Amino acid sequence: MSRKVPEEQYRKTISYRFKTWLDGVRDPFLDTVEMRPQPEFEETAETVARRERDRERIRDRVYDLEKNRLVVFFSRIYRVMAVIFCVFLVVMLLFAVSWLPTFGEADKPVNNEVSARYLEEGLQETGAVNAVTGMILTYRAFDTFGETNVLFIAASCVMVLLMVDEAVLKKQEKKNDRQFEPKNDVILQWSAFILCPVIFIFGIYVILNGHLSPGGGFSGGAIMGAGLILYVSAFGFKKTQRFFNEKVYKVAKITSLIMYGLIGSYFYITGANGLENHIPLGIPGHILSSGIILPINICVGIEVTCTMYAFYALFRRGGL
Amino acid sequence: MTVFNAILLIFLVICAIGASFSRSLLNSILIFMSYSLVMSIIWILLESPDLAITEAAVGAGVTTVLFVVTLKKIHAIMKNEDAEEEKERENE
Predict the structure, then answer these.
(1) What residues in B contact A223, CB-CB < 8 Å?
(2) Model pLDDT, residue B82
(3) Are residues A203 and A300 in the same domain?
(4) Domain total in chain A
(5) pTM for this structure?
(6) Closest to A219 (Cβ–Cβ): which among B54, B66, B70?
(7) Is there a domain that residue A52 lies in?
(8) What ipTM was estimated for this complex?
(9) Is pLDDT at A272 greater than 60 in this prediction?
(10) Are B81 and A245 a contacting pair, CB within 8 Å?
């Protein structure tokens, strides 16, 4: 049963405040945090004189090689110390390497019961023909989730540092429409026209066959990201934005990360590693098999594709 | 096969030294890219094709592109036309 709430009362509820915050109508920092603009720099005779004096002082005291004993001493000892340090490092590393077991030795500490179990029981327990993918996406799915989060955080940091406001970008583009769009290079465009579909299909193949053949989410995602970068550098951002803009990027990236988290936590809660697990594993070798590996591979692939493309777009243009 | 391995490894060392000693930043990026390509072949010879695919896509592809874009952003690469324009400006 619903009841009518007067608007003033509704405005006080948490849901209304959350909704306005979500829509960006209300800034939670406005009127609560003190914000003072930085005072503008004023050039007076005094500041000029001070700057000139500082500069001369630095030149006299620091860069004057004859008077500055420290610089003379340092420039003499620098090369010798560099050589000594490098030799020390090389000797240390070679000494450490000489203690490592030789390549292909049977009874070295890496060949313990963990890897033996991965190789012997992996096919039965995970259903993946590719032992590497079976290992990193079921036994070590939590580690891989951390890695995917690292990618997400890295892309977010690049966005914080390099993202330019869309309005500023539009203004810049209006001033000089050649700034971000490439010249119509016939060779590049034709090679991209021929190569891009092949690259995308290969990337999708690598992602979907992650549990059957070499590859997986990260490799396939990197291949597809490289294909997207080739497409952008050949045809420009305007054409790419028709199918891959900021909205698509946000939705795809966040959805894939959340999906991975949900699938992973379902897998842990219902019983991973050795416990009874009711996710069907299917027949090894079929494309629809091996339980959670295929959906997680797709999620990781989308995540990596978005990250690779976002790195390029943010470095190049400052926006997606 | 041992000879092939040895050639690849020597090339790897030469690339590593060349990348750090090259004067031009663009050259050193290109040498770094060839380093990644050789490394991906070595990964195949060491029977880990998973790593080879990733190395070829990330090391040789995306990283190089990001480096080149950064160089362009800090105006370390100049096209011939731009360089000529700059020279003319300096002459004026």
Answers:
(1) 53, 57
(2) 61
(3) yes
(4) 2
(5) 0.73
(6) B54
(7) yes
(8) 0.80
(9) no
(10) no
